[in-house]
Design a protein that fits this description.
Blueprint lengths: L2 H20 L4 H10 L4 H11 L1 H10 L1 H4 L3 H24 L2 H20 L1 H10 L8 H17 L4 H12 L4 H26 L4 H21 L5 H20 L1
Helix pairs in contact: 1-2, 1-4, 1-12, 2-3, 2-13, 3-11, 3-12, 4-11, 4-12, 6-9, 6-11, 7-13, 8-10, 9-10, 9-11, 10-11
């Protein structure tokens, strides 16, 4: 990479780390950045998953106040996320590169739709939130399925988790956002460890994204709530569309 390309990847890491903590879908920032500097889609995806791990950790630490009292939820849901991440990572490594190239544009378009509709999703969640016990049985299954998606690609994984937990768990959404950061971080960590062991990894971009996403995770936990949701969605949608065009072309 040139110095300019390295700067682009590092800044993308900052943006992704910030967005992941606040909303989710930071992959739609870093993945297109790696495509733009010339990496193949699978190498870009693998390197992206590894690079975002420190940012997830920083975000979870930043939300430690909201995580207070949620140990039982973490203990119940993290294993489901981990098993899903293992399954998704194995699928990524087992399926041919052509399958990833064909599937990922569909995933990105779906993620863009989810992000664009996020205000409506949030309103729907608020209308359908439970007032009694948590819906634990089906929640574990759906978190497992989300982990598979996260291990394979993962764009908008955080938004999907928030929608699911917002309906299933009667608690403050900021507390659920802290739990979301833990679950998404566990998926990235487990998938990243598998990729580091057996996949083709671009370690330079991993390091740049790791540093950037850590800074972004700290910024997101501290200042992210002040950012305009509409501006965030506009940026993510624009970058996601770039990624779709880049993959197709």
């Amino acid at each position: 990479m040139t110095l300019l390309e390295a700067l682009l990847v590092g800044l993308a890491g900052v943006g992704a780390g910030t967005i992941n903590v606040v909303v989710g879908s930071g992959t739609l920032i870093t993945f297109p950045a790696l495509l733009a500097v010339g990496y193949s889609p699978v190498v870009a995806n693998v390197s992206n998953s590894l690079g975002l791990v420190p940012g997830s950790v920083a975000g979870a630490i930043g939300y430690r106040r909201e995580l207070s009292g949620q140990r039982a939820r973490v203990n119940r849901l993290v294993p489901a996320s981990v098993l899903g991440a293992i399954t998704g990572a194995i699928l990524l490594l087992a399926l041919p590169d052509e399958a990833f190239r064909a599937i990922v544009p569909v995933f990105i378009v779906a993620a863009i739709v989810v992000i664009a509709l996020q205000p409506r999703v949030s309103r729907w969640v608020m209308r359908h939130r439970p007032h009694g016990a948590e819906q634990a049985r089906w929640l574990v299954v759906v978190v497992f399925a989300t982990g598979i998606y996260g291990g394979y690609f993962g764009a908008a994984q955080g938004i999907i988790l928030m929608a699911i937990m917002g309906v299933a768990i009667p608690d403050d959404l900021q507390r659920l956002n802290g739990l979301k950061n833990v679950l998404a971080g566990a998926v990235n960590l487990v998938a990243g460890l598998i990729f580091a062991a057996v996949a083709d990894v671009a370690w330079g971009p991993v390091a740049l994204i790791a540093v950037g996403s850590t800074l972004g995770g700290v910024l997101g936990a501290r200042y992210g709530r002040r950012l305009s949701p509409a501006a965030l969605r506009a940026v993510i949608v624009a970058v996601g569309l770039f990624a779709v065009v880049r993959l197709i072309v």
